[in-house]
Task: inverse folding
């Protein structure tokens, strides 16, 4: 496999989008760890622009990257994948994530919380389940935004087991999909599949991000991850995605406008007819895949090689991902006393989050003991060393 610089950019920008999205979560009416005093619905249509597809895109790119990692066989894959995903997950749950839960308790606990962070951290590590509001108790310890890591690890282990037990059938599925997805089927079939999954499951299973009971999310993310793995070497399918990029974009925009109209008109006080709800779910699934196809198609069309910016950003993505939500929560809560206008405060939060997270990366990559718990290799690759071919950096897995 040739290195896919287009997918390196897609992965980098998709993780960067998480910063924008999670800053937005502070200002909308949807539930989040901390909330702006000025929270309202103004940003919700813009948030909806990426809600259906941004995480599915990351799982698809991770599937392609996993195919690159497995190119020479599954030997050593479990150890490598576990080290790159589980060590940062454990460190994140013990050290990085607790401030999010602390400020959530400070803001949401009846009467507030006044014992200070260190006292809370001790109760967090002791799995104290007494932080409750109206019968809803905070689960501690938690992985919060790091839920992507255990999901990616679990999917990687399932793929590894499937390749050990049924390598032939897995290879043949990839070959057939590669032949099948050389025309409009590359747009239609995944869009219909994701739409049907949403129609059948989203109303029955709440999105929990708890791994063991998150059936709707598994039904959408695992197939997308496997699709990335199967299509990794399907050159003609990628050419078809590039060829149909204009149609993908146009149809994705149409489905997005339909979703905005639906959520702008219907709510709990004005529920839709069942058939309208089903059409909306189908439109959501269509937008989910068509947006991904458009992004992949235009990236493949525009990106033709490496660049200094990409060489810097690819290893920075993982540490920035681990740090970003905690940085947002801490900054946002402590900025409330300044009473800034949200249209000033929001861009400042975005800029400060990126700056602090990149500063954190610069610190982490210079301290050997911190590198593995932020997903980087023990020893950095000397600057100027060419990157080997072999697909995109294994999403949340590769680094200098």
Result:
């Amino acid at each position: 496999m040739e290195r896919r610089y287009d997918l390196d950019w897609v992965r980098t920008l998709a993780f960067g989008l998480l910063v924008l999205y999670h800053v937005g979560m502070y200002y909308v009416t949807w539930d989040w760890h901390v909330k702006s005093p000025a929270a309202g619905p103004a940003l919700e249509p813009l948030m909806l622009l990426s809600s259906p597809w941004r995480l599915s895109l990351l799982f698809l790119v991770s599937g392609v990257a996993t195919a690159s990692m497995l190119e020479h066989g599954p030997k050593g894959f479990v150890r490598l994948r576990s080290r790159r995903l589980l060590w940062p997950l454990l460190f994140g749950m013990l050290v990085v994530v607790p401030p999010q839960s602390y400020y959530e308790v400070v803001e949401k606990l009846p009467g507030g919380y006044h014992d200070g962070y260190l006292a809370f951290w001790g109760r967090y590590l002791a799995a104290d389940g007494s932080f409750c509001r109206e019968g809803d108790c905070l689960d501690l310890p938690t992985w919060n935004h790091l839920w992507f890591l255990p999901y990616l690890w679990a999917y990687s282990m399932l793929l590894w087991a499937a390749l050990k037990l049924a390598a032939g059938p897995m290879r043949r599925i990839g070959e057939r999909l590669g032949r099948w997805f050389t025309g409009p089927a590359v747009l239609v079939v995944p869009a219909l599949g994701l739409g049907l999954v949403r129609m059948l499951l989203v109303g029955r299973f709440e999105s929990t991000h708890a791994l063991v009971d998150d059936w709707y999310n598994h039904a959408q993310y695992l197939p997308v991850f496997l699709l990335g793995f199967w299509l990794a070497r399907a050159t003609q399918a990628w050419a078809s995605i590039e060829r149909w990029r204009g149609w993908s974009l146009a149809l994705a925009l149409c489905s997005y406008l339909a979703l905005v109209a639906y959520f702008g008109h219907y709510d709990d006080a004005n529920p839709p007819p069942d058939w309208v709800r089903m059409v909306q779910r189908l439109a959501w699934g269509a937008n989910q895949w068509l947006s991904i196809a458009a992004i992949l198609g235009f990236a493949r069309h525009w990106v033709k090689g490496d660049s200094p910016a990409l060489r810097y950003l690819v290893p920075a993505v993982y540490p920035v991902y681990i740090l970003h939500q905690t940085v947002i929560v801490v900054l946002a809560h402590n900025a409330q006393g300044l009473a800034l206008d949200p249209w000033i405060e929001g861009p400042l939060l975005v800029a400060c989050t990126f700056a602090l997270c990149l500063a954190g990366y610069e610190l982490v990559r210079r301290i050997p003991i911190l590198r593995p718990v932020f997903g980087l290799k023990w020893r950095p690759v000397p600057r100027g060393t060419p990157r080997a071919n072999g697909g995109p950096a294994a999403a949340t897995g590769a680094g200098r």
In short: The first helix runs from residue 5 to 25. DSSP finds 15 helices and two strands in the chain. The beta strands are 132-133, 136-137. The radius of gyration is 21 Å.
